[in-house]
Amino acid sequence: MQRKQTLGLVASHWQSRNSASRRLDAVPSLPRLRKTTMHWSSYQKQAAQFFTSIGLDAKIEFELQGARGTHVIDVFATGNYGGIPFKWVVECKAWKSNIPKEKIMALAAIVQDVGADRGFLLSEVGFQSGALRAARSSNITLTRLEELSAPTD
User: Fold this and answer.
1) pLDDT, tens digit (0-9, with 9 covering 90-100), for 80-104
2) How far apart are CA 153 and CA 147, in angstroms?
3) Does residue 10 sit in helix, strand or coil?
4) Reading across the β-sheet that carries 70-81, which strands appear in turn?
5) What CA–CA distance (Å, rounded) separates 44 from 36?
6) What pTM, to 2 d.p., does this model score?
7) CA 46 to chain centre
8) Alpha carbon of 21 to those of 36, 48, 67: distances in Å?
9) Which helix (H) or strand (E) holds 89?
């Protein structure tokens, strides 16, 4: 029951296309100098564990055929909500600098190419202002794994 309730909260939370942009805009200056010591493969595993913990099937380094080519997805999460299946593409960036707009645009193209419902770009460091603007009116959610894992009211 707990997992279904959590999945429902997550699905409804991310249903709004602009929710992530509003949340990140509320914090105008994300830390730019925070250093991450996490290895990229550990970050992918932690992301997959999070999506699995909310009742989704999550695969790491998943090879997925799109309309225009094959893509290797950091974490590919699938689930079913109310009888409707969904697919999420998760890109994990364990970088020491903020993520630029080009990475959001590339993820958006992959999400469209593979027919996914949503793309998540995870970064514990943050995102450049152009990246926040690019994600604002899209099905791309910019967030931190730490933020996803935080308890909700």
Assistant:
1) 999 999 999 999 998 889 999 999 9
2) 13
3) helix
4) 57-65, 70-81, 84-92, 118-122, 140-143
5) 14
6) 0.73
7) 12
8) 23, 23, 28
9) strand 84-92
